[in-house]
Specification:
Blueprint: H1 3-19, H2 23-31, H3 38-47, H4 51-63, H5 70-76, H6 82-95, H7 98-108, H8 114-133
Helix pairs in contact: 1-2, 2-4, 3-4, 4-6, 5-6, 6-7, 6-8, 7-8
Protein backbone atom coordinates (compact mmCIF):
# COMPACT_ATOMS: atom_id res chain seq x y z
CA UNK A 1 0.00 0.00 0.00
CA UNK A 2 1.42 3.40 -0.93
CA UNK A 3 2.24 5.95 1.71
CA UNK A 4 -0.29 8.47 0.32
CA UNK A 5 -3.01 5.83 0.27
CA UNK A 6 -2.29 5.16 3.94
CA UNK A 7 -2.46 8.90 4.65
CA UNK A 8 -5.70 9.16 2.70
CA UNK A 9 -7.28 6.42 4.79
CA UNK A 10 -6.05 7.96 8.03
CA UNK A 11 -7.36 11.40 7.02
CA UNK A 12 -10.72 9.93 6.05
CA UNK A 13 -10.89 8.13 9.40
CA UNK A 14 -10.08 11.24 11.44
CA UNK A 15 -12.38 13.50 9.44
CA UNK A 16 -15.18 11.04 10.11
CA UNK A 17 -14.32 11.21 13.82
CA UNK A 18 -14.53 15.02 13.54
CA UNK A 19 -17.96 14.81 11.89
CA UNK A 20 -19.12 12.47 14.67
CA UNK A 21 -18.30 15.11 17.27
CA UNK A 22 -14.89 13.81 18.35
CA UNK A 23 -12.94 16.93 17.41
CA UNK A 24 -10.12 16.52 19.92
CA UNK A 25 -9.47 12.94 18.86
CA UNK A 26 -9.54 13.95 15.20
CA UNK A 27 -7.29 16.95 15.75
CA UNK A 28 -4.64 15.01 17.66
CA UNK A 29 -4.77 12.08 15.26
CA UNK A 30 -4.21 14.32 12.23
CA UNK A 31 -1.62 16.41 14.03
CA UNK A 32 0.43 13.34 14.93
CA UNK A 33 0.67 12.10 11.35
CA UNK A 34 3.94 12.65 9.49
CA UNK A 35 4.38 16.09 7.90
CA UNK A 36 4.25 14.34 4.51
CA UNK A 37 0.45 14.31 5.00
CA UNK A 38 0.25 18.09 4.50
CA UNK A 39 -0.34 18.09 0.72
CA UNK A 40 -3.29 15.73 1.19
CA UNK A 41 -4.71 17.88 4.02
CA UNK A 42 -4.37 20.95 1.79
CA UNK A 43 -6.21 19.12 -1.00
CA UNK A 44 -9.02 18.24 1.41
CA UNK A 45 -9.20 21.89 2.51
CA UNK A 46 -9.56 23.04 -1.09
CA UNK A 47 -12.15 20.36 -1.87
CA UNK A 48 -14.62 21.15 0.90
CA UNK A 49 -17.04 24.06 1.12
CA UNK A 50 -18.04 23.30 4.73
CA UNK A 51 -16.72 26.30 6.72
CA UNK A 52 -16.46 24.33 9.98
CA UNK A 53 -14.38 21.65 8.32
CA UNK A 54 -12.29 24.26 6.48
CA UNK A 55 -11.49 26.00 9.78
CA UNK A 56 -10.62 22.68 11.39
CA UNK A 57 -8.32 21.70 8.52
CA UNK A 58 -6.55 25.08 8.61
CA UNK A 59 -5.87 24.59 12.31
CA UNK A 60 -4.55 21.06 11.84
CA UNK A 61 -2.38 22.19 8.94
CA UNK A 62 -0.73 25.12 10.71
CA UNK A 63 -0.25 23.13 13.90
CA UNK A 64 2.21 20.97 11.98
CA UNK A 65 4.42 24.09 12.17
CA UNK A 66 5.90 23.74 8.69
CA UNK A 67 6.72 26.87 6.69
CA UNK A 68 5.64 25.04 3.53
CA UNK A 69 1.99 25.72 4.50
CA UNK A 70 2.33 29.51 4.45
CA UNK A 71 0.91 29.84 0.90
CA UNK A 72 -2.16 27.83 1.91
CA UNK A 73 -2.64 30.02 4.98
CA UNK A 74 -2.49 33.06 2.70
CA UNK A 75 -5.14 31.47 0.51
CA UNK A 76 -7.30 30.77 3.58
CA UNK A 77 -7.10 34.46 4.53
CA UNK A 78 -9.24 35.17 1.49
CA UNK A 79 -11.96 32.78 2.68
CA UNK A 80 -15.37 34.38 3.09
CA UNK A 81 -15.93 32.76 6.48
CA UNK A 82 -14.54 34.73 9.42
CA UNK A 83 -13.67 31.55 11.36
CA UNK A 84 -11.48 30.28 8.52
CA UNK A 85 -9.49 33.45 7.97
CA UNK A 86 -9.04 34.01 11.70
CA UNK A 87 -7.61 30.51 12.03
CA UNK A 88 -5.25 31.26 9.15
CA UNK A 89 -4.14 34.41 10.99
CA UNK A 90 -3.40 32.31 14.07
CA UNK A 91 -1.20 30.05 12.00
CA UNK A 92 0.71 32.84 10.30
CA UNK A 93 1.38 34.51 13.65
CA UNK A 94 2.47 31.21 15.22
CA UNK A 95 4.88 30.55 12.35
CA UNK A 96 6.16 34.11 12.81
CA UNK A 97 8.74 34.39 10.07
CA UNK A 98 9.48 36.88 7.28
CA UNK A 99 7.46 34.77 4.81
CA UNK A 100 4.34 34.83 6.98
CA UNK A 101 4.67 38.59 7.48
CA UNK A 102 4.99 39.04 3.71
CA UNK A 103 1.82 37.02 3.10
CA UNK A 104 -0.06 39.09 5.69
CA UNK A 105 1.07 42.36 4.11
CA UNK A 106 0.11 41.15 0.62
CA UNK A 107 -3.33 39.88 1.58
CA UNK A 108 -4.13 42.92 3.72
CA UNK A 109 -4.56 45.13 0.65
CA UNK A 110 -6.55 42.54 -1.30
CA UNK A 111 -9.71 42.90 0.80
CA UNK A 112 -11.70 46.06 1.26
CA UNK A 113 -12.92 45.12 4.72
CA UNK A 114 -11.99 47.32 7.68
CA UNK A 115 -12.49 44.60 10.31
CA UNK A 116 -10.29 42.23 8.31
CA UNK A 117 -7.58 44.86 7.99
CA UNK A 118 -7.61 45.55 11.75
CA UNK A 119 -7.16 41.85 12.46
CA UNK A 120 -4.38 41.58 9.88
CA UNK A 121 -2.59 44.67 11.21
CA UNK A 122 -2.53 43.12 14.68
CA UNK A 123 -1.35 39.80 13.23
CA UNK A 124 1.47 41.56 11.36
CA UNK A 125 2.71 43.12 14.61
CA UNK A 126 2.55 39.79 16.42
CA UNK A 127 4.21 37.86 13.57
CA UNK A 128 7.02 40.43 13.37
CA UNK A 129 7.61 40.09 17.11
CA UNK A 130 7.66 36.30 16.78
CA UNK A 131 10.08 36.51 13.83
CA UNK A 132 12.44 38.69 15.86
CA UNK A 133 12.46 36.14 18.69
CA UNK A 134 13.45 33.34 16.31
Amino acid sequence: MSRMNTFGEAITHYLQRYREGHGDDAFHGLRELDHAVLPELEARFRATRDPDLRRFLVEVIWQHRQHSVIPLLGEALLDGDRRVWREALNGLVALGCPASVAVLRTVRVQRDDEEFRRWVDEAIEQAEEEAQRS
